[in-house]
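Our platform keeps sequence and structure together, in a single record for each protein. Nothing more is needed to write down the fold, since each code stands for a local backbone conformation. An entry from our holdings is shown next, in its original layout:
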Amino acid sequence: MTKPPASSETAADEARIARSEPGLAGALRISTMRLARRLRFERDPENDLTLSQLAVLGTLSRHGSMTIGELATHEKVRPPSMTRLVNCLDERGLVARRAHPADGRLVVVHLADEGARILSTDRRRRDAWMSRRLRELSPAERDVLRHAVPIIERLAQS
């Protein structure tokens, strides 16, 4: 179900509010939270992984194999929490563990083929939804978003 486009009055109000720094901060926070919530709704219904589990698979896909400590740092969770996440993913065959080549006390976590498949299916579904929504925008609006993506990514990494 798609939401009707915002009225010009609502869009004008949002633009006015976003002119100030606090207004921009609030408007961007609310908009990104709504978009994230909507994208979560578009998840593959067959996929019963938590968002944290999907995030770990995504991190391994983007950045390659990591120790549990590195994964914990990247995902901003404590190592014991990451150990629990990795244990669950390992039990399901979505990740694999191997001894660290230089330090036998450490374990390196790798994305398994089944984890990559589940992640790919989930991404395709969400990307398809986003593509449909982007086609509803004007070329100029899509161009604004192309320029905004690296900026939003920098904000997310800070």
Summary: The first helix runs from residue 8 to 17.
